[in-house]
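Lecture notes, continued. The same structure-token format from the folding unit now serves as the input rather than the output. Read the line below as a description of shape only.
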């Protein structure tokens, strides 16, 4: 008495638990990154800008930064203003075209990027603790296949609407 019988689940019927698991992992990862960011005075999206600037080099125009980060121009402008105020970036008017602001990391911004990369690497290492390189590769490959399948579903939905 008191024991519940577990009905056998058809393994092909519903994989929602996998998607819920992926979502949960993603949210926990985001929470860890957000906590670190907030402890360092950064808001959502600002690391993305700092990392993009670090990889794009000196003097990046806001339009190119928006394309690289997939953020809207208004989100770029708002976040850059905050990052400039905290001393992480500097804006200069383009020498060749006064219509453009050229954005660069300051030494403080470079330090934030370096420290953040180290912390993010630690978070990633802790996330995959106990996994072999083969298991990590297999997981990466499996997720890529699911993502590819999801893209084709999205395409088919749009195709049906167009018909």
């Amino acid at each position: 008495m008191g024991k519940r019988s577990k009905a056998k689940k058809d393994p092909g019927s519903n994989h929602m638990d996998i998607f819920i698991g992926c979502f949960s992992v993603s949210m926990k990862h985001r929470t860890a990154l957000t906590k670190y960011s907030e402890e360092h005075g950064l808001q959502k999206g600002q690391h993305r800008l700092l990392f993009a600037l670090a990889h794009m080099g000196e003097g990046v125009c806001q339009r190119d930064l928006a394309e690289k980060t997939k953020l809207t121009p208004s989100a770029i402008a708002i976040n850059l203003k905050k990052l400039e105020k905290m001393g992480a970036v500097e804006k200069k008017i383009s020498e060749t075209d006064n219509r453009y602001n050229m954005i660069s990391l300051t030494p403080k911004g470079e330090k934030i990027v370096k420290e953040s990369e180290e912390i993010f690497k630690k978070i990633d290492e802790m996330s995959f603790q106990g996994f072999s390189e083969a298991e990590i590769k297999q997981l990466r490959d499996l997720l890529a296949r699911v993502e590819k399948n999801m893209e084709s579903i999205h395409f088919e939905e749009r195709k049906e609407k167009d018909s």
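Point for the exam: Helices lie at 16-39, 46-56, 62-69, 73-85, 107-127, 133-162.
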